[in-house]
């Protein structure tokens, strides 16, 4: 940098984020409402994904920034996966634990059928691209991601800049569920709490 100073950076990589105001969770809910209470599943049962609560990801960013100021040569230039105590589940099962209050029913589709639907969506998106921005939730990329297990076991952020999750899994679940409970019951009958 000008003046001979060095800029130190690091990379924080969440495997998947959830929490209040998470648009993808809202999209799954909206899909369930639009289909009259049905959610299509197709991810293999043994697929696992690591999800991290948004508040813990934000906390990790703050601690990493402090670490970069206090120990730039140690923290800088490194990559850190974001992690907390959230359970490893498929995206579908993870989202359903929060959406279960809406009594959505699931319909299991073979992955091959979903792949053909994803290819069709990609074709429609390509055909419409000159005149309309069609952005389907299901495409070949999202299907590949959903069907691929990705979990992380690390304590690197704890070792390098003393990160421990600010929120426990119980707090993350409660805060996210409180937000999900604000969704309108619309076409689905919400369970009595």
UniProtKB/TrEMBL annotation:
GO terms for molecular function: oxidoreductase activity, acting on the CH-OH group of donors, NAD or NADP as acceptor. It comes from the Eukaryota. Residues 2-105 form the 3-beta hydroxysteroid dehydrogenase/isomerase domain. GO terms for biological process: steroid biosynthetic process. This is 3 beta-hydroxysteroid dehydrogenase type 7.
């Amino acid at each position: 940098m000008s003046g001979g100073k060095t800029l130190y950076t690091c990379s924080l990589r969440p495997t998947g984020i959830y929490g209040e105001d998470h648009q993808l969770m809202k999209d799954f809910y909206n899909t369930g409402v639009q289909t009259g209470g049905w959610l299509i599943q197709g991810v293999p049962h043994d697929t696992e994904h690591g999800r991290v609560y948004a508040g813990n990801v934000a906390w990790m960013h703050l601690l990493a920034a402090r670490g970069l100021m206090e120990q730039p040569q140690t923290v800088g230039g490194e990559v850190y996966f974001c992690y907390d105590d959230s359970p490893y589940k498929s995206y579908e099962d993870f989202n359903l634990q929060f959406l279960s209050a809406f009594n959505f029913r699931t319909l299991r589709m073979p992955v091959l059928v979903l792949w053909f639907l994803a290819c069709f969506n990609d074709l429609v998106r390509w055909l419409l691209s000159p005149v309309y921005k069609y952005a389907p939730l299901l495409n070949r990329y999202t299907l590949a991601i959903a069907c691929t297990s990705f979990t992380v076991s690390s304590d690197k952020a704890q070792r390098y800049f003393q990160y421990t999750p600010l929120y426990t899994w119980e707090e993350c679940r409660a805060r996210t569920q409180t937000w999900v409970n604000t969704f309108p019951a619309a076409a689905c009958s919400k369970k009595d709490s």
